[in-house]
Write a structure and sequence with these properties.
The protein folds into 2 domains: about 5-265, TIM Barrel; about 280-350, no CATH class. It contains 13 helices and 12 strands. The chain has helices at about 25-30, 35-50, 70-85, 105-115, 130-135, 140-150, 170-180, 200-205, 215-230, 265-285, 300-305, 310-320, 345-360, and strands spanning about 5-10, 55-65, 95-100, 115-125, 155-165, 185-190, 195, 235-240, 255-260, 290-295, 325-330, 335-345. Strand 3 (about 95-100), helix 4 and strand 4 (about 115-125) form a beta-alpha-beta unit. About 35% of the residues are buried. It binds iron/sulfur cluster.
């Protein structure tokens, strides 16, 4: 399998004339100024030096902001630079992210010309009332139109959605995922809303008009969405914002996060929780009460199966009184697992009975 590499180029808020209530792109992308052509070139060259493998897939990704909202001349200049690396076969593809209302046939033709392969749309919610509350400035209808057009032009479609937006419930988010599935994206990103300094949401939070969801709620909501997308073979490529110097613990004075479900390993918490459910299903499927078990997993899944700070092992012990040992096994395919019952509850009781008899005699 080819090794996948991404060269991220961050386009800050300047690329977006909009002001969604939750967004401060300067903090989210960690970049405050629009990169110059030289800086983009240097960034690409710097990254390429590290990619040693012969058999690799390299993608230049313009993240943050709204790429197709930047002044058209600048867009083309950026794409020209990236395209030179496609022509020289050092890079395989280009990815951009943008807003649904910044997509039209002319834009797509221009992106095609420069070999852009993937277009990710910031959707956030498919509920028009919630979109309005966040001042997104577009509707679900725009998302539908843009998604269809992107697919029609042969691009790989990606969607980004959020959990915990103002007035958004778990059901709204499930409905958003279901609506998106109908639009057939290939990839999805899910972001829990964090309250970022300098945003309107921060004011709403301070004035007690907005209450963020907790980390546990965010994990539960994201997990449900992952199940829905996975069922339709849509790949969830990211859960939670990337940690940066600014997107960090709200208690850190340099942090741009005021409140919300921040966790340094948020995506891992969701994956751990999915593993927890699957381990429990396996234990419950055994027709006897289990006391002691071993779970064999691929080494890639070891950390998720054990859980953050051993949370899965501890919770299974506390809640179900099962002593679980997770064992890495190369023979198990990633994502799969095999449960071995070491001791049933009957075995355990029998052991105690024998011990007591020994003591008596
Ligand atoms: S459209 Fe995107 S970049 Fe622009 S303000 Fe909204 S979230 Fe931020």
């Amino acid at each position: 399998m080819k090794k996948q590499y991404i060269i991220p180029i961050f386009i800050p808020h300047l690329g977006c004339p909009n002001d969604c209530t939750f967004c401060n792109q300067k903090s989210i992308s960690g970049t405050k100024h629009m990169p110059t052509k030289e800086e983009i070139k240097n960034e690409i060259e710097k990254n390429l030096k590290y990619f040693k493998e012969e058999d690799k897939n390299v993608e230049i990704a313009f993240f943050g902001g709204s790429f197709t909202g930047i002044e058209p001349k600048l867009q083309e200049e950026f794409l020209q630079i990236a395209n030179e690396y496609i022509i020289s076969k050092q890079v395989n593809s280009i990815r951009i992210s943008t807003r649904p209302d910044y997509i039209n046939k002319d834009i797509l033709k221009m992106l095609k010309k420069y070999h852009v392969k993937t277009i990710e749309l910031g959707v956030q919610s498919t509920n028009d009332y919630i979109l309005k509350k966040c001042k997104r400035g577009h509707t679900f209808e725009d998302v539908k139109k843009a998604s269809k057009l992107i697919r029609w032009y042969g691009f790989k479609l990606g969607h980004q959605m959020m959990v915990g937006l103002p007035e958004s419930t778990k059901l709204d988010e499930i409905n958003t995922a279901k609506d998106l599935i109908k639009l057939k994206p290939k990839i999805v990103r899910i972001y829990p809303v964090l309250v970022i300094k300098g945003t309107q949401l921060e004011k709403e939070y301070e004035e007690k008009e907005y209450e963020p969801i907790t980390v546990n709620q965010a994990v539960e909501r994201c997990k449900e969405l992952v199940y829905l997308f996975n069922k339709k073979k849509i790949e969830v490529i990211r859960i939670g914002l990337q940690n940066t110097e600014e997107i960090t613990d709200p208690n850190d004075e340099k942090s741009s996060v005021t409140a919300g479900p921040y966790h340094p390993a948020f995506g891992q918490l969701v994956e751990d929780s999915i593993w927890y459910d699957s381990i429990l299903d396996k234990i419950k499927a055994v027709n006897v009460k289990v006391k002691d078990a071993k779970l064999y997993v691929n080494p890639d899944n070891l950390n998720n199966a054990i859980g953050h700070k051993k949370s899965n092992i501890i919770n299974i012990q506390k809640t179900y009184d099962v002593d679980l040992k997770v064992v890495a096994d190369e023979k198990i395919k990633p994502g799969n697992s095999k449960l071995e019952i070491v001791k049933t509850y009957d075995d355990y009781l029998e052991e105690i009975r024998k011990k007591q008899e020994k003591v008596k005699s």
